[in-house]
Amino acid sequence: MNMIMKCVLLYFTLLIFAQTVAIAQEKPQILINLAQNDRQSGQIVVMQPEQLENLLSMQINNNRQQEGIPGYRIRIFSGSGQNALPRANETRTSFNKNFPEMEAYQEYNNPNFQVFVGDFRTKNDALRELKKIQRRFSGAFIVPDIIDISK
Questions:
Q1: C-alpha distances in angstroms, 106 versus 32, 74, 102, 146?
Q2: May I ask the CATH class of domain 69-147?
Q3: In the prediction, which pLDDT does 149 show?
């Protein structure tokens, strides 16, 4: 019986191996379509399912409705209380004098007035600027935010 089990196991192993080799030798449909291009005009027509076109259209519409993209900013001030607004204004003015090439944003997130600077797509971009900013604003740090990419 032990020999019979070994033979059955060997048979199934060979069967699976043969199927794998047969599948691996088949060309994917996209390669077949690309190989059948019109050699006269030099154009390749890519055929895609209608569902894919619909998903792409939905994503484009979603992107158009957003005010920006996910990215990073540097927070240089956050404070609450009676003198928080004047301090936020002073911080923003000081930042604009020292870093005129970078945009500063002042926001009120109850109960705090906050000042954020920059529009960074990656955290590495923000880190490079953070080192410069921390020389003047020692409490500055990076926060994820929705950034304006039009600038």
A1: 56, 12, 13, 14
A2: alpha beta
A3: 75
Q: Report the residue count for the chain.
A: 151
Pair of tokens at residue 46: 């890519």
Supply the Cα-derived Rg of the chain in whole angstroms.
30
- Using CB atoms within 10 Å of the CB of residue 14, give its burial: 0 to 12 exposed, 13 to 18 middle, 19+ buried: exposed
CA-wise closest residue to 103 among 66, 62, 135, 145: 145
Task: List all residues 6 or more positions away from 89 whose beta carbon is below 8 Å from its beta carbon.
Answer: 106
Q: Where in the chain is the domain with CATH 3.30.70.1070?
A: 69-147
Name the pLDDT band for 35 (thresholds 50, 70, 90). low
Average per-residue pLDDT in the chain? 83
Q: What is the pLDDT of residue 51?
A: 87
Residue 46 φ/ψ, nearest 5 degrees: -100, 120
105-115 pLDDT per residue, tens: 999 989 999 99
